[in-house]
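MODEL INPUT / OUTPUT PAIR
PAIR INDEX: 1
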Amino acid sequence: MLGSCTAQDKKNPEKVAEEFVSLWEEQDFDAMYTYLSNSSKEQYSKKEFIERNEKIFKDLQMSDLKISKADLTDKQRKKSKENKEITIDTDINFDTIAGEIDFTKEIPLIFKETDEESMWRIDWDEGFILPGLTKKGKVDITKIQPRRGEILDRNKMPLALNDVAYEIGIIPEDFSDDKSDKQKISDLLDISTKKIDEKLDASWVQPDYFVPIATIPTAADDKLETLTNIAGVTYQETTGRNYPLEEAAAHITGYIGQVTEDELKDLPKGEYSAQDLIGKNGLEEMYEDTLHGEEGIEINIITEKESGSKEKDTIAEKPVVNGDNIQLTIDVNIQEKIYQAYEDKSGTSAAIDPKSGEVLALVSSPGYNPNEFIYGISDDRWDQLMEHPDEPFLNRSRSTFAPGSSIKPITAAVGLANETINFTDSVEINGLTWGKEEWGDVKVTRVSTSDKPVTLEDALTRSDNIYFAMKAVDMGNEKFIKGMQDIGFEENIPFQMPIENSQISNDGKLDEILLANSGYGQGEIEMSSLHIALSYTMFLNEGDMLKPSLLLNKNEREVWKENFINKDQADQMKKYLREVVSEGTAKTANDDDLHISGKTGTAELKLTKETADIQNGWFVGYPTDDEDILIAMMIEGVEDVGASSYVAGKVKDVLKDIKD
């Protein structure tokens, strides 16, 4: 039966065309076939007709098909009755993965009169599907990969850049499929023979196709030569990724890797394929949308001429949109120098411009080499990194730690702000320990005695724990907690990378003993290296604590905490921080050629009663005269190398190296 046309409708070409167009818009290819002329049916079986239409519709992701049919004039109607044939103009419009396609197509109709039935039929060809398509023509979908944006430092030096890589593949018809060859490929590429078989057995693979197996960096030239000596193994150049700083900036950049099946499920449909690379960590992941760009797509009709040549006609094109670069405030030279200062030790540092809030370095040691992850890391190497005792995957720059005595200038600022501390008052302290009677055996210990009442200046210079414990207790829970909250504790740092919130205690509450210990950086109080660095900016900016920035822009500096202390208080604190280095606990940072101001800190970590204390050393320092860089450095396990004095010496060396 011919569609839903009545016997009378079948004798009307406009009615037949109208019904055909309706079925076409509904993509009812089965019913459409009943309208085809005998000559069309001779060229296309029903199965071929349906499969050809369905495949192209699916591959091009065709949608929103609209077809408008022109009306015949009376003259055309009269002529159609005479000639038993007519063409009706149609405008065809639909959306595809490469954008809109709009074209005009004539529908040829032929009137066939038999003893059984009289009717108009459609003389169909493949040009109904796409403009210019013939039976021998092929539909080619070409995808143009966008250039991934690069991650650059403040001077446009690369932290993550595009590079050439080698995509290793197999031509099945040239490959012997010998087990020994397959095993050799497996060993060289750190990929299982099972995975190789899966790639070769994929449904799309043809004997003469290049089947991608793995990608290797250009540095692996020796490996490339060995691989290409195997029959059927070849390569093509592709775009790769390179991280020049390797471990030194791994926790900033992160890395890219092949998109997983689970990731594909959560990504916008059509934006990624199984072969694409995607940000897996760090800024590569956080700014994936910015860096990735948008894939370009061409829909081409490939027609083979009688001469054997092929002609390509592009009928739809979605231009490729390359990813945008990201320029950071980071300075690769400072980042690398600080990372190298750690040698084989663990820890974290934040370096900032204390006058603008720009982050110049954000270091976590140890790191890992992101270049190992781009093209697939072996299970053995992954396990080695995961089981490493120093936890190279732990991003210490995002984590918080006990600040030790580096918090004392901050405690002083809180006291100055709430007027429980001033520059002239002094405290009588006797001996090396102090504690209240109701505390029982709990005592606060200091490293040296004083022969006179202790002022804030003396307490900072000699790093007197008892002074700051007493002042915290005098302040009381409410004022101490409020002061720390006003300086950013228990608050998200307004920064482009997530940093753990600094905490006052595990539950946000303090008993008196915990309050005393918190005053000098022990107890349960914790800060990130970035938060400590930012806190010290108030002393260099007349009491304003600056907001950090990671993305380079032309905006003026932004204040995070305004007028936390006043200008006179800030200037006096700067004087004391210089004395800490020239006369006090940070003498290892003292240098005749480069005057440095800052504060040491040693955080004692008691893991169990049976084990000795582990000490994390801190130093927060800056050039006294220039005040153009401030480094907050923490190194773990410094109990046997000089504690915080060791760290102060490291910061001095880095600052001198930068200044030279």
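PAIR INDEX: 2
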Amino acid sequence: MGDYSRDPTERLTDSTSKHYIAVRMQQGVPLLDAEWNLLYDLRRHEHETLGTMFIGNGVPAGSDGFFIFAVGDANDFGIRMGACIINGKIATNDADIQYTTQPNFGNADLDDPLPSLTTPVSNKQFIVYLDVWQREVDAQEDTALVDDRIGVETTTRVKREWAVRVAGVPEDLLLLDTPPEGHVFYRLATIDREGGNDSITSDMITDLRDTQLSVQRKIEIRDADGDIIVDSSRFQQMVENARNNILSFIRYITTQYNAITAHMTAAEVLGLQAAEHIAATAETGLGLVNSESIGNRGALKFLSQMYDVENNFMVVWRDVVLTLGGTPKKYASYQNFITRLDERLNDQTVGSLTGLLAALDAGNLEEAVAMQEEINRLIGTASGSIPIGSIQVFLAQSPAGNLIQGQIARLQFTVRSFTTLADTYTVAILPEVGWQRLVVDSSGNPIPNNRITVGASGSETTILVDVTVETGSSDLQLLITSDSNPDEITQLTGLYVLTEGQPPPVGEDQVQISIDIVYPPATLDQISGVVTVPRNNDGGINLRVFNYTGQDVIFDLAVVTENAVGTWTINFAATQLTVTSAAGSGTFAGSVTPLSDAVYMQLHVTATVVIQGSTVSGAIIIPFEATI
């Protein structure tokens, strides 16, 4: 470090904590190096903050900076000339180069020198990333900093450095998210290399950069604690479901509800055109979200457009399409669907949700998104395009022995489907902090976006989670959510505590819960697993708990409601259930009552027992719907 009267880094930290943005010189007083240094550092901090918060990371328009390409040399690849911005810091590559000829390759002074690439023994994925930092340069390195006229180094320089590095998957993923102090990382590409092959070809490389970078806009709605509850990802999923479900509705009406060769009346064509307007509007919204060109205010305006086309669809079907035919009318079966759509669009409240128009008038994006998701579910149900029912998720298998630091422990979960249709599901690993935990395939490769496919009722799907054991303990919990019907089909596993030097939690396949029988007026759909109960009536239900522990046990029982729309009451008197090994299973009963405003809810039932110090449990989530 140069000879400074005050440490520049400490001075900047102190000034930014006080929200200083500039330095003002005064007349008749000495000029100190500390003030000039702070002037520069404050300006740089402002620019980097601007880039981080309002522009984002990536490559600007007109540049192809740091594009990774094949060069034909063994264990090497090319790096395109150009610029890239990461957390407001601009890195510039002056010419097309290779990994082995980049400026810092062979620089032994780096804290982490760049290694030569080697041929992998087996098929393996790597992530190429850009490492950016800055360092001080003095006259010992750059003699031009000495003014020959006075022979003194009057100032030093701050230089931005970069290096293109390669990380192995999955062992280096945690490193990518925790760069050393003063460094920032940006993922450039993945390379899927073949075992025993020293070549890196174009078909192995997948570009990860965000290009054509401009001002970045995102959707972020936060709760009272500052946690994000609606983000661009959720908004995008909502818009995708709106488009997909209305397109499925159109296909259903034209190819299943009506014969594919049937002639449509003018009224039916008008109804289908109204549906197409919803799909076209949703498609426009997807373009805005994907281009990161929409923020909170724009999202409200977009949902106002969705309200207009959905309300027009409802009016056309109510006043035109439903009038077709003789007695009964041709589309009479859709009367309840249109009535419920009208309620969700125009009523002040529907159960615990705010109507879409009311939410938009109040400028409440959170409530508007929640109701649009409910409208998506309603349209999907009308076309039979979204899964309905429930899933069970349980820990099926854990590795033997104690957890050892550095070990990659694989836990196997099973998803059991009780839904009408197959769907993709997103797996969230909770809590966010803790040891590295990855959803992987059977080869140990991370699954993109943690998305898995779960079949229809009767199918089972395996989820593999690789945990890198570190010191101390770490929690693990999975949240599995249907992409098409996230409001109704979601399952949260129990919370597992993983501790170094201790055995992992035992599998939950030792305890299972199922519906034994429902009593009139309640009815059970055997395919979807949905229990329907008329409003203001008691629906009796008998649940069976299967004991596969091999021991006589007393289960602790818990029954709670989740995701309720409207008011429901439940009455389950039993808090414990004795099930012997010989009997294999036992039952307990209760009742569920939907009140006059009830729409649907989920009943979460768990049975838990402690065996030799380990907790063993099973769970089931049962969807309920209220009928008139």
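PAIR 2 NOTE: The chain has a mean pLDDT of 89.
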